[in-house]
Structures are given as C-alpha cells and as structure tokens.
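Report of the visiting student (M.T.), summer placement. My assignment was to run the structure pipeline on a short list of targets and document each run. The first record concerns 3-isopropylmalate dehydrogenase.
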Amino acid sequence: MGVEKKILVIPGDGIGQEVTAWGQKVLTTIAKNYHHTFTFEEGIMGHVAIEATGDPLPEETLQKARNSDAILFGAIGHAKYDNDPTLKVRPEQGLLKIRKELGLYANLRPIKLFDELLEASSIKPEILRGSDILFFRELTGDVYFGEKIRTADRNTASDLMIYHRYEVERIARKAYEAARTRRKKLCSVDKANVLEASRLWREVVQEVAKEYPDVETEHMFIDNAAMQLIKDPKRFDVVVTGNLFGDILTDEASQIAGSMGMLASASIGDSTGFFEPIHGSAHDIAGKGIANPLASILSAALMLDISFGLKTESQRVIKAVEATLRQGYRTMDIANKHTVNDFIMGTDAMGAKVLENLN
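After the run finished, the structure tokens were exported:
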C-alpha cells in the first residue's frame, strides 16, 4: 500500500535551483516505482525571495511549509551580501526563521564515504576507509540566536552564546537514540574548559547519558575534535554538538566524503522535516551546469527514510548513487587524475545517470 505525502520544494539561490530539480526527479521516480503518491509545491526563500518580495521568507512559503510533510531545499546566499555586511535584510535570515518557526532543532549530517571516492579526498585512503559518522548539530540556540550588540561607535561587537537545558536535553536524546541503532558510541563536543554555555552542555549530556547505559559516551573539546576528525575519523560514530561547533565540524568533515557536493543533511524537530545539501549556493559556478547533484539526491534519500519511514526506498536511492560512482561517472568536484575525461559529467548528465540506475 503506497503512502501519500505533500512535499514543498524550495530551490533557493545559486546552484540550489539546479541540483534540487534532480532531488525532486528522484522522488518522483521512487513514487512511481513503489506506488506512492507525492504531491509537490514550490516556494521561494533567500535572495530570490528578497528580490521578489523584500522578505527572505515570505509568509506564503512559510504557510506552505507548515502544510507539508517534508521540505526539499536547495541553498541560499549571494555574493551581494557577502560583500556588504551592512545590509539589514539577508538571505540567511530566512533559513534561521524557518528553523525557528517549524521547531527544527536537530540537524543530522551523515558523513559516509563511498569507497569509489577514496581518492577524491585530500586525506590518505588508509585513514578514511570505513569512516561512517552521524553528526547531530543543535540548530536553535548558540551565538546564532543569542543577543547581538554593536556599540554606537561601531568599534565593538558581541554575540551571546546561550543555551537552555531543554535544548541540550532534546538533541542529546535524539543522538543517543540514533547511537543505539549504530555502533553504540557517542561523542559530545564542547569547550567546557572555557565557556559557561559548554559547561551547561556537558552537565546535561552527562545526565542524559545515564538513561542510555548501553551507549559509550565520550566528551571532547572542540579543538581536539577538529584534529581527531582528520587524524582518525573512524573513531567517531555519533557526534552531538552545539550550533557553532557543528557548523564548523561538518564542513571540515566534507573532506572525508571527498566533497561538499556529496553531503546531505536533515533538519528535524517533532513535525515537518527539512532536507538539504550542505554545499551552499556556490554562485561562482551557478548557471554553468557543473554543480554536483548527488547531495540533493542523497537528501531526498534521507527524506524517504527519516520523514516517511521508507527505508527500502531510501536504500534504493543510495544504491543508485553508489552504482553511478562505481561506473566511473564524476562531476568536476569529485574527479581526480584517474577519471576518464568522457566520464566527467555536468549536473544534468550526472542526475540522469542516477535515474538510469534507479529504474
């Protein structure tokens, strides 16, 4: 018996508009092959929304999001804002607002290396082989949401790093539940030797850990974690950390997978899930047709698993990506000196190869 789901597609800015189309096509193919009914709507957010409405998250898009079972997102951002920090209305405000409005407090980023991409990373293959990490990044607290101050003379600024006990408790429990289904190892990353917010974080994680005696818990300072992630990534299973540290560590971990163009993510709470590649809008390559669509396709696979409970269908998508890589096809970001030129593909050709392997 097939399921019926409403999916909101928000392509966003830059290459988001190019790669999200392939995530949607994969979902459409899965629905057809497994007799599900997926209904798609589209919304705008980010720079394109500011240009159209003056608002990075228009109310119409927010209402569509609330009425959806899941959201497939592309990326937001534009060089205009990077080059002018004085602009008051910014694309990122839309992303922060939708996370807050939908209660998306946990960002899941699986860092799983396909064997076919061992040579794509700058890290030695013998260090990488077998790496499989699941990050839980807290999304609604920390310096991103704390009070922001700039003095009248504009010479001093501050961002408040703030966490509440309940915020740490709820993401810690999600991380522990996930660890129980994996290798039963959890590493909590903080800076408790310096930061009061991190001391609260560690205290709460230690309390939650008592509820999961079957999971081995390790606490690690952020600076050490950043080093260990490159030195010995296989030591990690589930990693849980705050908003700022998680932002940095998961981008660093993209080198384990070979490219940001390979990494999917899920932002979840207690209702609608939000699924996106982590690579950003990449305006330097937007419109050139060379962006890697695999992260968006793998984000669709995450949606099938986490939001819809369709694990078989999710694994089918992952296997199609794996088969495409095994056949030797690469986009520029994951190609290397051994890649045959005729097998270096653009966005649409790569997406089409995955669809061939999906059917």
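The chain has a mean pLDDT of 94. The chain has two domains: 1-108+262-358, 122-257. I thank the supervising group for their guidance throughout the placement.
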